[in-house]
Amino acid sequence: MHSLLRLLSDGAFHSGEDLGNALGVSRSAVWKKLQQLQAETGIEIHKVRGRGYRLAQPLHLLDRPWLVERHKALGWAVQVHDSIDSTNAEAMRLAVVGEHIPALIVAEQQLAGRGRRGRRWVSPFAENLYYSLVLRIEGGMRQLEGLSLLVGLAVVKTLRAMGVPNAGLKWPNDILSGERKLAGVLLELTGDPADVCHVVIGVGINVNMRVAQDVDQAWTSMRLESGGDVDRNQVAALLSSELARHLAAHRQGGFEAFQDEWERLHLWQGEEVTLLAGSTALEGVVVGVDAVGALRLRVGREIRTFSGGELSLRLRKRLDPESRG
Ligand code: BTN
Fold it and tell me: Per the confidence metrics, is the pTM higher than 0.90?
């Protein structure tokens, strides 16, 4: 699929004949492939009699050879998929086989992208970054403590370095600009966390998305925040080097070394919030995080700590604006 899209990616007109010659297929085979591409990716392709085909918008595709080269120094294998169910699901399958790890899986499109708490992650073709890194963990539980918060920190630093200065964190690992979601992190584990296991670090970043019908929460993208088209290859490469650096430091000193920095980038630090756990809600003020990344909340006169993947925070001023006077 990529070869035809790559030929069209400049947004200029290409005749059916030229495309057919370049791919070694007939003009009618080109037409059929284009129909199929439109149906599979949702990309709009214009056909104009006498001029040929062109894309409604130029496309910047993931560059497999460049990504492979850029990750050699880190010792990570790289897979680039046109379309996949979920890069996290593929990473979990790789973890079971246990070969070529660490491995990074990226895709142009996910058909069943997974979000936290069983939600769907909307993953349109060639617009955003769908990124999963699978690692083998041998040091037991300590190597996992605060890991998802650490990943959020690496994502925020990547976004800030790439022209999104307002990117910040929301406990445990949402990445927002203001109250709009820019990126999310989903960690999945397989094996025995107390012994040898594999962790999949899944990161979804809204990079060039401008419209999306199906996203069920307030969102934004790097493009909307920075005002320009962003190269997803550069985002992936910078995220990998930030992650590698943070992971190495985390292996040595745990999350504790990142606690202060994480709190400085926490957008809801000191805010009145409601902590939701299923149908249970608890009100408090965010104090920060502890040395393993658990949330510290002032509830009445007490400071209480909370952790767990099913928890989520809401700002009280939005839920109940009257109560703030
Ligand atoms: C969240 O709900 O905030 C987490 C979203 C994580 C989405 C990413 S996209 C790449 C990887 N593959 C998936 O299926 N999910 C994660």
Answer: yes
